[in-house]
């Protein structure tokens, strides 16, 4: 990537959320950051920020026209290049109210700063080479993390784990490309069969690495967005009771009347750091009125969108035709069979249920709260069956990154197919080049203004 010259203008924005808070921050970045702040800041020790050391704090006041005090503040300075943006960054820490912050921002804008665009501080960090694109996107994922696992994954991405894997894979591909392009100058006869096999093996290895990244990316999506789990089963088997038992609160209405639950009920829980969305559904098979018709539609939609189904059976009575009909609807989904009401006399056996539906089965009592932790562990394991997350390193969790990986894999597979057809290496190289450029856009080794706009417009102003 070409070295980008530092931007000429100095940007400013309120960096803290709108509303009341203990502290609010107006942040500036750019060549004029210190000079602009000096125009509005009265330091208690009367020394200008311009002369301050980097990583220092100054106490004083922000003053507007004719020296009218706007707020009492602490100003911090981080000089280029050791700052978030690699430019001079000054942060004015004021009281966290909407008025002081707005007035301070107005003052710095009136004195030469420009209002920052969404994500412009992070964009500058990227353009100035402090972060690559995947790392810059991790900043947004950290802010939006819904669970500890998501946070951990994004922090790892920020530290460059994903970028290193992608860059090394791309370097590998560039070497293959260079060797292919060098061979293009030779006639077909001069390229030995041995070297063709070697190209083939090298491409296979690249393909395998891309596939592995994509497969692990499925976990990444769940880490990032949470696991959507639907509680499904015929009326009265204890679906709502199970929801309540997992939540440890009487959230859903439970009665002995079949068809109690109509609307889907959605709640979040945290299982070992994983965000899990639990959805209780209506269990009727046929509707008798408009409400039940809508209830059925909602159940179907939830089933379609979920990552995992808890298929609940009443363990105290024999299986019925209804159970089998519902089982048909989830045969292609990832699911756990939950044999409920284990506190009553058992009429069905857990291993037989696992065999019947070809899914793992667990026995619980929602009423007595028995075996609920075992069920939670099983839910967790459907995502992390290989063991705890810590052993797995960072996984690709960003939708843009996944899309690039999938397209790169398609291009690499096309390169393999072209090679297998014994077409000229020139054509193979053409396919491979597509994959290389795609991966470059993931980390930002290759980028366009349009791509940066798409990425950074999702950030908040001030980040
Ligand atoms: N003994 C026993 N009874 C249970 C258990 N779980 C649920 N029940 C009872 O079964 C009945 C139905 O429970 P719900 O949780 O409402 O069942 P549901 O599957 O949500 O039913 P619908 O909403 O009608 O589809 C209630 O009387 C519960 O008290 C259990 O583990 N043991
Ligand atoms: Mg219910």
Structure notes:
The chain is α/β, with parallel strands linked by helices and 463 residues long. The protein has 3 domains: 11-132, Gyrase A, domain 2 (2-Layer Sandwich); 140-221 and 398-444, tRNA modification GTPase MnmE domain 2 (Four Helix Bundle (Hemerythrin (Met), subunit A)), CATH 1.20.120; 226-390, 3-Layer(aba) Sandwich (Rossmann fold), CATH 3.40.50.300. It contains 15 helices and 13 strands. The chain has helices at residues 33-40, 98-110, 120-127, 133-144, 148-158, 161-184, 193-225, 239-247, 290-305, 321-329, 350-357, 372-383, 399-420, 425-443, 449-456; strands at 11-14, 21-29, 41-43, 56-63, 69-78, 89-96, 114-115, 227-232, 265-271, 274-280, 308-314, 335-340, 361-363. A 7-stranded mixed sheet has the order 3-4-5-6-2-1-7, covered by helices on one side. The chain has a 6-stranded mixed sheet with strand order 9-10-8-11-12-13, with helices on both faces. β11, α10 and β12 form a beta-alpha-beta unit. α6 packs antiparallel against α7 (193-225), α6 (161-184) packs antiparallel against α14 and α13 runs antiparallel to α14 (425-443). It is flat and about 85 Å long. It starts with 10 loop residues before the first strand and ends in a 7-residue tail after the last helix. The structure holds guanosine-5'-triphosphate and magnesium ion. Residues 233, 235-241, 254-256, 258-261, 282-283, 340-341, 343-344, 365-367 line the site of guanosine-5'-triphosphate (GTP).
């Amino acid at each position: 990537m070409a070295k980008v010259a530092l931007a000429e203008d100095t940007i400013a924005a309120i960096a803290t959320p709108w509303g009341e808070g203990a502290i609010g921050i107006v942040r500036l970045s750019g060549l004029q950051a210190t000079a602009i702040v000096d125009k509005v800041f009265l330091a208690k020790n009367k020394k200008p920020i311009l002369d301050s050391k980097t990583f220092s704090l100054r106490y004083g006041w922000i003053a507007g026209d004719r020296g009218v005090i706007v707020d009492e503040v602490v100003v911090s300075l981080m000089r280029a290049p050791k700052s978030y943006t690699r430019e001079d960054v000054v942060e004015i820490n004021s009281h966290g109210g909407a008025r002081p912050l707005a007035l301070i921002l107005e003052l710095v804008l009136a004195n030469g700063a420009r209002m920052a665009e969404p994500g412009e501080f992070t964009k500058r960090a990227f353009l100035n080479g402090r972060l690559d694109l995947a790392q810059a996107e991790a900043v947004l994922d950290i802010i939006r993390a819904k669970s500890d696992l998501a946070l951990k994954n994004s922090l790892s991405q920020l530290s460059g784990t994903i970028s290193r894997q992608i860059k090394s894979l791309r370097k590998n591909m560039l070497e293959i490309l260079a060797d292919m392009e060098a061979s293009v100058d030779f006639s077909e006869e001069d390229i030995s069969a041995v070297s063709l096999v070697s190209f083939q093996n090298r491409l296979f290895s690249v393909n395998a690495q891309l596939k592995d990244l994509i497969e692990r990316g499925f976990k990444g999506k769940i880490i990032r967005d949470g696991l959507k789990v639907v509680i499904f089963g015929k009326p009265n088997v204890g679906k709502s009771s199970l929801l309540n038992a997992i939540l440890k609160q009487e959230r859903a209405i439970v009665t002995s009347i079949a068809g109690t639950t109509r609307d889907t009920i959605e709640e979040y829980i945290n299982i070992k750091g994983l965000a899990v969305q639990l959805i209780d559904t209506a269990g009727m098979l046929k509707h008798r009125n408009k409400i039940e018709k809508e209830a059925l539609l909602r159940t179907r939609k939830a089933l379609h969108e979920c990552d995992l189904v808890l298929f609940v059976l009443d363990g105290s009575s024999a299986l019925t035709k209804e159970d089998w009909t519902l089982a048909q609807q989830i045969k292609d989904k990832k699911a756990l069979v939950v044999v409920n009401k284990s506190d009553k006399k058992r009429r069905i056996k857990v291993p037989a249920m696992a065999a019947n539906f070809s899914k793992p089965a667990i026995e619980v009592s929602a009423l007595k709260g028995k075996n609920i932790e075992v069920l939670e562990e099983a839910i967790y394991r459907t995502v992390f069956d290989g063991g705890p997350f810590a052993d797995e390193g960072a996984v690709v969790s960003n939708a843009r990154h996944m899309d690039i990986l999938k397209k790169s894999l398609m291009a690499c597979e096309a390169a393999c197919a072209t090679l297998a057809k014994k077409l000229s290496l020139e054509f193979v190289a053409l396919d491979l080049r597509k994959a290389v450029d795609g991966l470059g856009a993931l980390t930002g080794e290759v980028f366009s203004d349009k791509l940066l706009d798409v990425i950074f417009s999702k950030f908040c102003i001030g980040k």
